[in-house]
Specification:
The complex is a heterodimer of chains A (384) and B (342). Chain A is mostly helical and 384 residues long. Chain A has 15 helices and no strands. In chain A, 54% of the residues are buried. Chain B has 2 domains: 3-131 and 276-299, Rossmann fold (3-Layer(aba) Sandwich); 133-274 and 311-335, Rossmann fold (3-Layer(aba) Sandwich). Chain B has a 6-stranded parallel sheet, with helices on both faces. In chain B, helix 3 (44-59) packs parallel to helix 11 (276-288), helix 6 (133-147) crosses helix 7 and helix 6 runs antiparallel to helix 12. The chains are: A mainly alpha (384), B alpha/beta (342). The interface between A and B is large, with 38 and 39 residues. Chain A: InterPro entries: ABC_transp_permease. Chain A: The chain crosses the membrane at residues 31-55, 75-99, 111-133, 139-158, 165-183, 218-239, 260-282, 302-327, 347-369.
Chain lengths: 384, 342
């Protein structure tokens, strides 16, 4: 959580002046050096935690080898890393965009669930359409529903001032139960099952797997291009388009943005809607590319991991892409770690959490690695 | 050998003892993919894993496992055990049915064995392990009906899927049978065998839900509750521990929970055991001998694939007549004179 809302308004102008001269170096440190060191510290602490819980040194070594092997060590490892990264990056882009606009959207999980469900339902309802139509339209259905669901929180904030943190958390809870309900409806529920599970996505609705001609177990799918396209699109939207400027201006300083004639209500709804559409797209990519169907909790916490990811990527599309690849690698590698070294996959969650803690506390990272940073010559050194 | 570390940490004494007996890694590897309950759920996954551990001890095989954190992990986890490192892969649970079938069809040389799923038609490289759990649950239902002071017993499940509801079916059939025999009107809350509707937590991991659902049933008058949801039931046991066993008793599932949940062992009236450890062990053994065959094995009261756990501390509280009746019904089910399924 950056200090983007309250404190900024006060010291923003003065700090911007001070920072101007050191901008390049400062950005580099914040965007690259802090995250890299945060990952290193987290891995070291992870090793210490393993040691403290009685894992012997050779096993710790073995588990880090497995982590590397399972994330980048083979074609199937890379495929798994990318597969895990796709929904994370898509949802993370949405959240990063929201953060840029000063909106702390906790609702990606719910938007992702409903978006994914919409994509599944669309795909089997319009079974019979050719691939060239069905697959893109199913993705679109996911994006639209995710966007609409998120805009509820946007509209509530724009019209009544209801805080988006609260409303998106509540919308998450509603979406979990709504999904449970929907999955029991006869037109959605899989035939012959009494548990909440949807019908399968028809072949023409699926995101095709890219490497199954090499080995049918390679799961990486065409969502990869969707992810890369979304990174480019969000970058363009944020830094090259008029609406993106409005997003960023409102996020940096809402009052100044209002004086400049930017309609804050509209910006809030548009930013929430776009963020939700990206989360919905993440859900759609996950069901159409990996899961083939919707079941309770198919989001598997992606929407929450994506918050961490957007923070780690400093809300910058390229940063989010790399953060997503890192998290995808940790997930795929964590699995290998459990298989090879018998170390609990829970440890991966701890390492991820530690990374975020250090990202959120850049002063701490700077204190641990003083030689990695230029001495800060003004008070703003750690306020980012 | 490695997975022991974790068990040891979690304080599971049985595994810890075995730590010393396992020596060098061997040529044969048995792997297991759990469902979201986790390997240390004191119940479903742990019982199946015990089969691998037993094989590790007695047959000298190597065991590995992968825990599924979420449903989206099933396929990924099965995939990461492919590539020839496992001689047989056990997938634990009905929900892994699709992932197992896909992996088995894509990898016809890899041997799989799934607990709780019967493929129709069968897949040549998959051996399904299913259980006539309703037979043992019938006994537990009869026993509970006889032990209930309020005349109300309760049950709830994890997810409304056949391997869960078969417990509830058998349990309520057992209660009905008791009513029929004794002319009583003991009620079952939480499951309606006709409408196939009942109480479900919709997960296999929330201990809080286990507590809340048991509380609701208790508030409605139930003094014996059967939670059929793996580790969720541990939450119910915690409630029974607080209320006292006079007010609320728990019927365990899968393993003998008196043994696997030693901290709360006094709350268990008995457990409906589904001897996955024994079938997993058998499958490991036959695979080692090169006699693996796809198809189906069914655990019953007769072949001791299912059964009722000993009463342990409750031994003295249960009237001798009731115990004798339960034993007689068991024989009746085995020889076919008592029908469990409707």
């Amino acid at each position: 959580m950056t200090t983007s809302i309250g404190k900024r308004e006060l010291d923003d102008a003065g700090r911007a002046l001070l920072n101007r001269s050191t901008r390049g170096r400062q950005d580099f440190e914040d965007l690259v050096v802090v995250p890299v060191f945060a990952v290193i510290v987290a891995l070291i602490l992870g090793a210490l935690i393993m040691f403290a819980t009685g894992v012997d040194l050779p096993t710790i070594g073995k588990s880090f080898v497995a982590l590397a092997k399972g994330s980048v060590g083979s074609l199937s490892a890379v495929s798994e890393t990318l597969t895990a990264a796709i929904p994370l990056v898509l949802a993370g882009l949405g959240l990063g965009l929201g953060f840029r606009a000063g909106l702390f959207n906790i609702g990606a999980e719910g938007q992702l669930l409903l978006g994914g469900t919409a994509a599944v339902v669309f795909s089997f309802t319009f079974d019979g359409l050719p691939f060239a139509l069905l697959m893109p339209l199913s993705l679109l259905a996911g994006a639209v529903v995710g966007g609409l669901y998120a805009s509820i929180a946007g509209i509530l904030k724009a019209t009544t001032g209801a805080h988006e943190v609260i409303s998106t958390i509540m919308l998450n809870l509603i979406s979990f139960q709504l999904l449970n309900y929907l999955l029991r409806q006869p037109f959605i529920q899989k035939e012959g099952r009494s548990d909440p599970i949807s019908k399968s996505v028809p072949d023409a609705g699926q995101l095709p797997r890219l490497l199954d001609w090499i080995d049918p177990n390679l799961r990486v799918h065409a969502g990869l291009f969707l992810m890369l396209g979304a990174v480019a699109l969000v970058w363009w939207l944020l830094f090259r388009s008029k609406i993106g400027f409005a997003f960023r201006a409102s996020g940096e300083n809402p009052d100044a943005a209002r004086y400049a004639g930017i309609k804050s209500g509209l910006v809030i709804v548009a930013a929430m809607g776009t963020a939700g559409a990206l989360a919905g797209l993440a859900g759609a990519a996950q069901v159409l590319g990996v899961l083939d169907r919707a079941s309770p909790g198919f989001s598997a916490g992606i929407g929450f991991d994506a918050i961490a990811l957007a923070l780690l990527g400093r809300s910058h599309p390229v940063g989010i892409l790399f953060a997503g690849l890192l998290f995808g690698g940790l997930e795929a590698g964590g699995r290998q770690m459990q298989v090879d070294a018998g170390v609990s996959i829970d440890l991966i969650a701890i390492i991820q959490a530690l990374i975020i803690v250090f990202i959120a506390a850049p002063l701490l990272v700077r204190a641990i690695f003083p030689w990695g940073f230029r001495k800060s010559d003004n008070a703003s050194g750690g306020s980012q | 050998m490695t997975s022991f570390t974790r068990h040891f940490l979690r304080g599971i004494a049985a595994s810890a003892l075995m730590l010393t007996t396992v020596t060098a890694a061997s040529a044969f590897t048995a792997c297991q993919v759990t469902d979201t309950g986790g390997i240390d759920d004191n119940s479903f996954n742990q019982t199946a894993w015990k089969g691998v551990l037993d094989a590790q001890e007695k047959l000298g095989v190597e065991g590995r496992y992968l825990e599924s954190q979420a449903e989206s992990d099933y396929e990924a986890n099965v995939n990461s055990l492919l590539g020839g490192q496992c001689d047989v892969i056990f997938t634990i649970g009905f929900l892994l049915g699709d992932a197992t079938a896909n992996a088995a069809k894509a990898n016809p040389d890899q041997k799989f064995s799934i607990v709780d799923f019967a493929y129709d038609p069968t897949i040549p490289n998959v051996l399904g392990q299913v259980y006539a759990t309703d037979q043992a649950a019938f006994l537990a239902g009869y026993l509970s009906a006889g032990m209930s002071k309020t005349g109300i017993v309760g049950t709830f499940g994890g997810i409304n899927i056949p391997p869960v509801t078969i417990f509830m079916d058998g349990f309520s059939a057992g209660v009905d049978y008791y009513n029929e025999q004794k002319g009583t009107t003991v009620q079952v809350l939480g499951w309606n065998a006709e409408s196939r509707e009942g109480l479900f937590t919709n997960n296999f991991d929330s201990l809080d839900d286990g507590r809340a659902f048991a509380q609701n049933l208790y508030d409605e008058g139930a003094d014996i509750v059967l939670p059929v949801a793996g580790p969720v039931g541990l939450g119910s046991a915690a409630l029974a521990d607080e209320l006292g066993t006079e007010a609320l008793k728990i019927v365990g599932v899968d393993a003998d929970l008196y043994l696997t949940d030693p901290a709360k062992k006094h709350v268990y009236l008995t457990s409906i055991m589904k001897r996955m450890d024994s079938t997993v062990y058998q499958v490991t053994e036959t695979t080692m001998k090169g006699e693996f065959e796809g198809g189906l094995i069914v655990g019953t009261l007769e072949n001791e694939g299912v059964g009722l756990a000993p009463y342990h501390d409750m031994e003295d509280m249960i009237p001798a007549d009731l115990k004798a009746e339960v034993e007689a019904i068991k024989q009746g089910i085995i020889d076919g004179s008592i029908k469990v399924g409707g």
